[in-house]
Amino acid sequence: KGRRRLQGEEETPYGILMVNPNNLQQGDNSIKICVVDTGYANGHEDLPSLNATNDGYSPYKQLWHVDGNGHGTHCAGTIGAIGGNNVGVTSVNTDHEKFSFFIGKGLRNSGSGSWASVMDAVEACVNAGAKVISMSLGGSSFSQIVLDQYKDHYDNDGVLIIAAAGNYGNSSYGYPASYKYVMSVAAVDMNKNKAVFSQFNNQIEIAAPGVSVKSTLPGNAYASWSGT
After folding, report:
1. 4 found inside a domain
2. Where are the alpha helices (H) located in the chain, listed in sequence order?
3. What is the pTM of this model?
4. Smallest Cα–Cα separation from 134: which of 180, 89, 169, 184?
5. What's phi and psi for 91, nearest 5 deg?
6. What is the rounded distance in angstroms from the CA atom of residue 126 to the CA atom of residue 213?
7. Which of 16, 26, 58, 228 is least enclosed by beta carbons within 10 angstroms?
8. Number of domains the chain contains
9. Is residue 152's pLDDT more than 90?
10. Which of 119, 144, 112, 113 is nearest to 133 (CA)?
11. Which domain covers residue 176, as residue numbers?
């Protein structure tokens, strides 16, 4: 289980220091970021509070603002945990005047899901005005229909879709990351070496810290997890 942190113990995970987001210039306009995953622990002490009616979508009979798995909340924390609040962890986007979340519950609380439901969640993100979609999920099956939909969002909606390269430690292609119109992200450890589990192939555009990444979990908890 994730460990509770005491007030005044805000921590900057090593991966945030490696990315060094404070050196990156932010624009004047707020951007909407969509996380397609297992949901979002709305009400977490270290995450922005979202509107349960307007700020997410679920194609399942499960609420998007309840994360019974934790994976989606962990990913959301790395993207946008609140900074400067003396609790929990920091993130790459600590200023919530500069971005907002939309949540697409593409996966069930079990962590599984269908490609149709994932694509429904992606479509909801685009319709909500998201310009960045983060998907730390994947599978081995290629679909021309799915590829065409991502191409449309890239070409016509100006959406950057980012996905996990995969965790099988070989050079096989994982999808959606290996589609031409999706940015594939591999994982490195704290020494900037390729993580042993990370996929490696010619579709990978970038690598990011992915070993023992500390972030938020449901129940005002925190834990270090690994993956692309």
Report:
1. no
2. 14-19, 71-80, 115-127, 144-157
3. 0.94
4. 184
5. -150, -175
6. 28
7. 26
8. 1
9. yes
10. 119
11. 14-225
